[in-house]
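so im writing up the methods section and need the Succinate dehydrogenase subunit C record in one place, dumping it here so i stop losing it
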Amino acid sequence: MPSATLKYAYFPGCVAQGACGELYQSTSALTQALGIELVELKKAACCGSGTFKEDSQLLEDTVNARNIALAEQLNLPLLTHCSTCQGVIGHVDERLKEFQDTDTAYVEKVNGLLKKEGCSPYKGTTEVKHLLWALVADYGMEALAAQVSRKLTGLKCAAFYGCYLLRAQTSIPYDDPVHPESMETVFRTVGATPVYYRGRTQCCGWPISSYATEQSFKMAGMHIQEALDAGADCMVTPCPLCHLNLDSRQPEVEKVIGRQLRLPVLHLPQLVALALGVSPKQLGLERHVVSTGPVLEKLGHKV
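--- predicted struct ---
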């Protein structure tokens, strides 16, 4: 384990507390197993998933400056397990830190709106970090390997990074946005075999699903087919919105593309926690639309 206890201001986001409740559940199980302390930001607001700025950039910046300020009050980094939340809140943090040097009037405007609502000001004194980055950069792969009690030997995992984690921010210090390897590094650390395929860093189709549903499902179907054709036993994603399009809507995707898929899609903390000996029930693996049974059977669990 790391020499010091890791502690974060936890921003769970909306989807993990609703449609993907198993992500909230498995993040809790994983961090407890690793001895990571989470202080949940109960007063945090939805990041907007990139839609606020369509009406007002100032709205997106102010809402998320408040979210960041909640973590700053605790003197802790803000941790999220949602790539979309990471992209949006991380980008706001990046913008406002830059404006502290180049456009102080704008930051003052944001903080003026926060003060009007009785909120603490944004100071730019912390960072926004996805769970994946926390595992790779803070906890460390050597320490994670030492905690593995049930290696995922023989399980072929296809990472699905999606858009926001890699490209929403100007600087990603923990991975290469074009040729990422952090998820594959985690897979190898827990004993699984990474599967590479073209679509792993592309959009899942979720952002257009409300107004271009068929095109959205075709995008999701293309990625799932590529992963299957590359030999994957499952997909693993760090984003609950990607999970919705790839897992929850997979039966609809099958109808659009005319091919049976049935590829299980796991949340990142579910996969890692399985290797730590956490039970499938504790991880909410029964909640998925596409059965995770084949994955559990391959790992020797009773289904």
